[in-house]
Write a structure and sequence with these properties.
The protein is mainly α. The chain has 3 helices and 5 strands, in the order E-E-E-E-H-H-H-E. The chain has a domain of 59 residues. Strand 3 and strand 4 form a beta hairpin. Helix 2 runs antiparallel to helix 3.
């Protein structure tokens, strides 16, 4: 097998064109602060579900160790944690998607193929 470097010298066109430049900073009081002065709030999903978590933890602690009911209570408690984690992921995805849509040109000319 022969390695030919001239095959790899083709210029690759960028998929997207940068429209604006923005600085993004993770904040203490807000989730994200941009250099344009825009702030994205941190919804604090885990704190909002704290009441349900407290009740489910209490119910779990009252179950007999090794019982089927305790395993079910563990799953229910875990599902509340999973729900809060999914809410965080969804919110971060929506925020990042809105920033990308705002600052990257995603429109392609008609008939132009993306390589």
């Amino acid at each position: 097998m022969v390695f030919e470097p001239d095959l790899l010298t083709e210029a690759v066109a960028p998929l997207r064109e940068i429209r604006n430049v923005v600085g993004i900073d993770r904040g203490l009081l807000s989730l994200i602060a941009t250099s344009d002065g825009e702030f994205f709030e941190n919804p604090q999903w885990l704190q909002k579900s704290e009441k349900r978590l407290k009740r489910k933890r209490r119910q779990l602690s009252r179950k007999k160790k090794g019982s089927k009911n305790r395993e079910q209570a563990k799953r229910e408690l875990g599902s509340i944690h999973d729900h809060a984690a999914n809410q965080r992921k969804d919110h971060l995805h929506k925020v990042s998607r809105s920033l990308i849509d705002r600052y990257w040109n995603t429109k392609q000319k008609r008939g132009q193929a993306i390589d």
